[in-house]
Amino acid sequence: MIELQNITKRFGEHTILNGINLRFEAGSVTAVLGPNGSGKTTLMKTILGLVRPESGAMFIEGESVLGGAEYRNIIGYMPQIARFQDNLTARELIAMIRDIRENPPGSREEELCAMFDLAPHLDKHLKTLSGGTRQKVNAVLAFMFNPQILMLDEPTAGLDPIAASTFKDLVLAERDAGRTVLLTSHIMSEVHELADTIIFLLEGNVYFQGASAELLASTGENTLERAIARLLQEKNQTLSPKTQHLSV
Amino acid sequence: MKTIIKLTRYGIISAARSRWILGYTAFFFLASEGLMRFGGDTSKAVASLLNVVLLLIPLVSIVIGTMTVYNNRDFTELLLSQPLRRSSLFAGQYLGLALPLTAAYLLGVGVPLLARMGSTDSVANTGLVLMLLASGTALTLIFTALALVVATRYDDRAFGLGAALLLWLLAAALYDGIMLAVIWTFRDYPLEMPVLAMSILNPIDLARTLVMLKFDVAALMGYTGAVFEKFFGTALGMSAAASALLFWILAPFGLGMKIFAKKDF
After folding, report:
1. Most confident of B35-39, B51-55, B234-238, B249-253
2. CA angle (A200 as vertex; A195, A206 as ends), nearest 5
3. Residue B192: which of B223, B167, B216, B214 has the closest Cα?
4. What is this model's ipTM?
5. Domains, chain A, ranges and CATH?
6. Dihedral pair phi/psi, residue A77, rounded to 5°
7. Residues of chain A neighbouring B262 (CB-CB closer than 8 A)
8. Distance from first CA to last CA of chain B, Å, rounded?
């Protein structure tokens, strides 16, 4: 479980996260949505410790973690861009991350490599791999230590349909195993398939938080894509957050 | 510490497979081997190599260092999402860059020079070669640290590379011009000590002075040369020079680590 309390982050004069209060529950997939520049990536990077907020508190499994490093032992992160140190092979990269994490027992790398059909590519230099294959390596790195928390930033971008389908099955299995999963995606069908909860960020504020069915019901639309478009239209008309959904 | 060693090891593996490090080693090897083979004299070879070392090492270290940090930006983010302390990651990143560059220089210059030095070569010539190797190593460590400061401080790749080149130009060329202007302006005053102090403040000048004094040609440099030799010839002078070089390694390293610790990725 992740809890954010009053997190504020500014870049210069721009407020990217404006006193955000959120709670991500275990055994649930939460999709963080919003237009470009709404603060999705900054929110994820704040949880990971890549971005340092100006104020606020963050708790993971009940412990205050802001500024620490050890808590990332229970986090698996799959970034959107899969660029690595190009002169290493995929096998060496996996070994390096395992090495950095002090070789935790029960690593699933073999199972995951088989799942994503990575065996023929493991001894190739990373710079020679296609974007999709690199993304599969990324998936292995994120899932291999059975992390309690999974943070997936546009995870299926670049994956072929078979790998994307395998990946989604994997995410749902992890959720059923009680993991906390955070996801960003611009593919609404994927969000609909995976997410139990949707958080819609707009200009650094939580504009909507609730189940996808709730979002569809509140906007009167049939699809998530149209519901999100309706939210944006409403925002443009009212210029004020939909406060009835702000309770966290 | 264990984490720093691990990160350094992977940095070295990656660097050892890259073409630029092989090219850098080959260049120094061919230049040193050629000068020793055709120059026929160790001190002449060192004198020729000195200028190459003083210009090329800072340039290559700062450019390769800056570009590597920019190219590895996404990979650095991936590593930061692991349970690593930022200080360990920064130190690993620095050593993973500085050690392969140092090894390339020592292999490229040290092997041909030491292998071709004849039995007739004096102890002084051995000292000269060792001083050249030590100075080049110090310059590598200093300018790699400066590269990390620049690339960590500025997110804009073009601006960062420009700043790195400007730093190199300042240390390699402009600083000497400033020194000459100072000497000319205050030519009526005794300037030996201020010039001594100024040459310690720039690592390239300091490296040049340390190697030059090993040539035993200080007498040709007039009164200033005598003052320099007198100062650097003492234990106090050598300690001051070593401390200045160490300061030039540690100060940018510390500054870079401070920026890295607070940086938003």
Report:
1. B249-253
2. 130
3. B223
4. 0.85
5. 2-245 (3.40.50.300)
6. -120, 130
7. 52
8. 24
Give me the helix-helix angle, B203-214 and B42-71, nearest 10°. Answer: 160
Selection from A230, A201, A196 nearest residue A216 by Cα: A230
Inter-chain touch A50–B84, beta carbons under 8 Å: no
Instruction: Put residue B149 in one of left, alpha, beta given phi > 0 → left and psi -120 to 50 → alpha.
Output: alpha
Are B6 and A84 within 8 A, CB to CB? Answer: no
pLDDT tens per residue, range B206-253: 998 888 877 766 556 666 667 777 777 778 878 888 899 999 999 999
Does residue A177 contact residue A149 with C-beta atoms inside 8 Å?
no
Buried b (16+ CB within 10 A) or exposed e, A193-210: ebbebbbbbbbbbbbbbe
| Half-sphere CA count of B192, side-chain side, radius 13 A | 11
Which 3 state secondary structure label does DSSP give B189? coil
Interface A-B, measured as beta-carbon pairs within 8 A, has a size of: 71
Q: What is the dihedral of CA A192, A197, A200, A205, to 10 degrees?
A: -170
Q: Give chain A's largest Cα–Cα span.
A: 56
